């Protein structure tokens, strides 16, 4: 379909960018076959009057027309959505995602089964059962803790669980909050074991804000001078099959896990437990001198409740709201559970086994809840479960689920993570080693980066706008990806 | 004949005498003939007579006239008359005489004749005794064949015995006719004078009394001799009465018992003629004639073809489609149409047509039609350039056809309606080593682990979701026997025990998937090993404890080893997970063995060899039934009742692989003849469907646990996925639809392609293993 270049479309540009990047809100007639590049040039031309001394060169903008990112020609975009070209079109513009830079790579001894970023800390679990810790804020991947054998089998999931509301806030949240005792690292393995760890500063006691003591770790630590140490404090007993996924609650003290035993188990740790654990750790410290195996002494915890419903392996769980747990399973369903009632509230049936699930981050306050999941047939889909909640409230039964599909992956989608900074962006990785960054408003991926030579198995965002992915090529790739939400900046 | 007998002079009986008498009569032929001639008054005879001897003849004729008295008719004009001729004429005379009897005048005469006959009978003796013949011997010797006419102009009239000329009598010797006549008249001779001139012998003969009588009788038309009975009594010999004895005493001739050849030939000829229609029965001829008549008189519509659609077909098979006809002109086409057909000229000038829009008050004013040639040309073009098609009536419209085709298609659902089924390659499970052939794959009942059996004697365990190899069990080879691991099978009850077949040995391995030493599999194995310690084992299947090395995690684990002494090929578990069966193709009655892991016991279910070569055996998923596949048959044995339940016959090739439907009533087998055969135990012992889809031996077939799917893996490197729906009601037969061909699933290496296929227990996924050392997972 060739659009007529002579045809003009009246457009008005709006933006949520700061004032210096705003263009006058007058209607501008643009050729109907103008593309994103053309519009971007227009904006740059409009801005250049105000910003002559901009040395960074032309800025790249993305344009939102009627809720979707503009891809291709403007007229075709409008025609596809049944919009009239005769009315004035409101186009929102914002900075486009910058093209990816060559990634940094961290080597690990085995396949990387799980990565989790916390602040500028990156935890990664590998298939030999080891967990390692890196600090990435310095640009290079600084090894804080080499691979520490945490499990007998491969590590499948990691989560950082906040235990108390108190604790260091702000800038140096990354390290200090971890070893401050307010948060623990939970590791899950395919051998059905789950463990909780303190992150201690190696070679010195970490003074906790809540009166917690940091314990010096024993002989096993291989940490460097600035190294941190992992100390096992909890053993979470309950799973009878391999654990596939762990997710912490948005509140504090709770997390959930799912795996091959087809149950979502909910665990909670309160400050007393922490205290007990610390006491225990102290004992262990003593016993370590008596050459007792380190891992044998840890506080055993049992799950507070479990949620049933799935018929096959639960491949992924997430906890978007305080009272809502979502899980995806190989039985092709996404189920949402009310935690307090212990009941399933919503169920979405797909036609292929689901391998990963994540929810948008700011579910609590922005009012939107989006679940993204990827399946074995390479399909990524986004679904808002609250439609069915509303339908249930009204008593009209199950509403037809509006699921938006994103078709680009050709292999099994291994992991999917929403950007912590934007409700629209998420990233997914597949068994071809590709990592794709998506904007929910566009059916095409923004970027498709081949980060791994083998299967990419896990993925996470850093708050600093970095994407970390681990794969079967025994590498963790760090990809700068400064995602900004359209309305923020 | 008569004369001959006479000449012989042998006979002496009465008959002879008769003949003599007759001769006497004969010797006077001239008399009778002259009489005749006179009576007829024919010119010829007159001339003859005239020539002959005029006077004599006249005398004689007079004499005979007197004597005979009645008109004697005779056609014979010969001078001499044969006896038979006389007899004929006599009989005629008799007939005529009898006619005259009715007239009545001669009745008395007849009666007197009778009297005379009686009188003469007495004298016959005398006649017989003295023969007048002897008295009057012939002097002349010329014989009777020489007519006397020839001697007319001669002086003699023949020759006597001595050869002397017999002189004609003249003068005194011969009394002149006139004298003779006068003598008669005078009475010197007497009215009853019996003298007769013998011309032949030239002498006067005096007739005896008997001769006279004979002459008289002849003249009356009677037989000359009294003893002749002209009307003897008829003896009927052919009567209706059956004769007691045969008339001819001959044996019946053979020909009377044989069918006549001539008749047979004739019949054949007739039959042929009838068949060829050369001859026809009259009824048919009549019929034909009538038909012809009817035809010639038939009345028919001369123009009836015009409206009828021609239904003939040309030689090229195309039927003639008549050209469409012009629409007949209506009012609008008239040269002077009604006003309502005349449109306003202002309204639409463009669409105006002259023919319908113009009006003329009379036909004379209509101009020539200027488009006539153009239209005819167009019409001709249409007729021969435009393909014509007959429009079908009734339910054969295009719509109906489409609908029907759609219905037919709808009978076999589209593959897209039969989702889910494995469609695309998702993962490959890599085997280290140089293209080691993978013989068997098996997924554990939870669907998390995949075990493979390879030619290098290693059992590998992979994690399904990530393709990570988590265990490598190196099976110990005893005394360099077969290295290949041919078959593996997970224990179906969730305990981590894997049975692997390698050569003569069968291993039960504790797979240790739970990651702890107290895995359920290890516990089970340890229990049975403890039992084994104090137990004597079956000599045919030696149970023993073996350490099997595990390469990835390190260490060796206790496991059970069963040595069968013969090469085993396949193993399969009972659904409860305690028994498993193994197959040794060359084991005869030990071919199928059932082992119980918990008791370390081996049973031989069959006393005799079942089938020539056992290929595979499977347990029924719910009943105590064992399916045993030999080369040509699949037999189902009830293990409790110890009887044969069913015997299924493979149609072609020898069976290589077998799979049992999870409900147990259907079986598929793969054969060397590139076929997959589906047997329905409820239907018959023969295959319900035979699918010939592959181009090489079908190495493995598999059913899905709960999706209606089955698959076949073949040496052509392809894996075919089928939808195989089995219905619970007893009326609907299974529905089999091919849904997917996984082409080039495996490279063909050394004539071996895909070796094994196995469905995921929960997902509609299929694992395929090939000789190229790859194991692939296809997901929906």
Automatic annotation (TrEMBL), chain A:
A GO cellular component entry from the record: nucleolus
Keyword Protease in record: no
Keywords, sorted A to Z: Nucleus, Repeat, Ribosome biogenesis, rRNA processing, WD repeat
GO biological process, one term: maturation of LSU-rRNA from tricistronic rRNA transcript (SSU-rRNA, 5.8S rRNA, LSU-rRNA)
UniProt-recorded Gene Ontology molecular function terms: ribonucleoprotein complex binding
Segments for region (Disordered): 203-223
Ranges for domain NLE: 9-78
PROSITE patterns given in the database record: WD_REPEATS_2 (PS50082), WD_REPEATS_REGION (PS50294)
WD repeat locations: 236-277, 406-448
Subcellular location: Nucleus, Nucleolus; Nucleus, Nucleoplasm
Gene3D superfamilies: YVTN repeat-like/Quinoprotein amine dehydrogenase
Pfam families named in the record: NLE, WD40
Family designation: Belongs to the WD repeat WDR12/YTM1 family.
Role: Required for maturation of ribosomal RNAs and formation of the large ribosomal subunit.
Protein name, UniProt field: Ribosome biogenesis protein WDR12 homolog
Organism this protein belongs to: Chloropicon primus
UniProtKB/TrEMBL annotation, chain B:
One Gene Ontology cellular component annotation held by this UniProt entry: preribosome, large subunit precursor
Renumbered ranges of WD repeats: 431-472, 691-722
GO biological process, one term: maturation of 5.8S rRNA from tricistronic rRNA transcript (SSU-rRNA, 5.8S rRNA, LSU-rRNA)
SMART domains membership: BOP1NT, WD40
Domain BOP1 N-terminal as annotated: residue spans: 151-422
Extent of Acidic residues compositional bias: 35-61, 89-136
TM segment ranges: none
Region annotation (Disordered) ranges: 1-144
Keyword rRNA processing: yes
Single GO MF annotation: ribonucleoprotein complex binding
Location(s) in or outside the cell: Nucleus, Nucleolus; Nucleus, Nucleoplasm
InterPro entries: BOP1/Erb1, BOP1_N_dom, WD40/YVTN_repeat-like_dom_sf, WD40_repeat_dom_sf, WD40_rpt
Keyword terms: Nucleus, Repeat, Ribosome biogenesis, rRNA processing, WD repeat
Pfam families per UniProt: BOP1NT, WD40
Summary of the function given for this chain in its UniProt record: Required for maturation of ribosomal RNAs and formation of the large ribosomal subunit.
Family named by the database record: Belongs to the WD repeat BOP1/ERB1 family.
Name of the protein: Ribosome biogenesis protein BOP1 homolog
Organism, scientific name: Chloropicon primus
